[in-house]
Amino acid sequence: MPRFYCPAPLQTGLALSLPPGAARHVQVLRMQPGDVITLFNGEGGEFEATVTRMGRSDVDVEVGMHHPVEREAPCQVHFLAGITANERMDWLVEKATELGAASITPVMAERSVLKLKGERADKKLAHWQGVAVAAAEQCGRNRVTRIDNACTLAQWLAQHPVSAGSGVRLVLSLSEGTRPLAEAVQGQMNVTLLSGPEGGLSPAEEALALSAGFVPVTLGPRVLRAETAPLAVLAALALR
């Protein structure tokens, strides 16, 4: 059954018009009145909905039964992603959403090729949020990965001081003294994961992370690409 994100209050018996993106998708699928779809708004569970009218550019539905199903990973991961080149960042957001990341903060690292500010930053963040929405629709998640505002590592640390109950902080590192992922996590259910762009974090950025309580972790002897390494961590945490 086709699934669509509908960021609006949903309840059984409600009649509503689908948001433009979902409406276009329904029309592309050539659905007709009487066809049933699935709607979710990111607040928990999903709803059946029946198409009641197909307009030229809009689609009306009636919301049906609610199903309190969740498909979230057992470990909540907040991902600080060093911004990679355009296509790789899109791919990273898509796959991180599929693997259950709770949030993604694009980090403007010293070695990031893509620099964001002003209107360009707003457009990129909206684009990445759209990528996350599409990935959630496809993979069956009923909650959408939140894309936070892009910032430097120093800015993020200033806004998120270490506090009790905030879980463990991990940074992917090739330096000496790293710990295996499983050992560093040790059953934690709330993880903040920091990963650099192509070329990794600079020595100064890694030192800053370590001073703020991040634990350096390794995924083994091979050097993985910037878009591969954090996904390996997410997969390990989601599938344990």
Q: Which features would summarize this protein structure in a list?
A:
single chain, 240 residues, alpha/beta, seven-stranded parallel β-sheet, five-stranded mixed β-sheet, 12 strands, 31% helix, 25% strand, elongated
The span between the termini is 28 Å
Biggest sheet layout: 7 strands, parallel
Q: Kindly name the structural category.
A: alpha/beta
Poorly predicted runs of 5 or more residues: none
Mean pLDDT: 93
Q: What percent strand?
A: 25-35%
- How large, in whole angstroms, is the Cα Rg? 20 Å
The SSE string, one letter per element, is EEHEEEEHEHEHEEHEHEH
So how many helices? Answer: 7
Helix content: 25-40%
Strand order of the largest sheet: 8-7-6-11-9-12-10
Walk me through what this model shows:
With 240 residues, the protein is α/β, with parallel strands linked by helices. The chain is 31% helix and 25% strand. The chain is built from seven helices and twelve strands. The strands form two sheets. A seven-stranded parallel β-sheet has the order 8-7-6-11-9-12-10, with helices on both faces. The protein has a five-stranded mixed β-sheet with strand order 1-3-4-5-2. The protein starts with a strand and ends with a helix. 35% of the residues are buried. The model has no long low-confidence stretch (mean pLDDT 93).
Give a concise summary.
The chain is α/β, with parallel strands linked by helices and 240 residues long. It contains 7 helices and 12 strands. It is elongated.
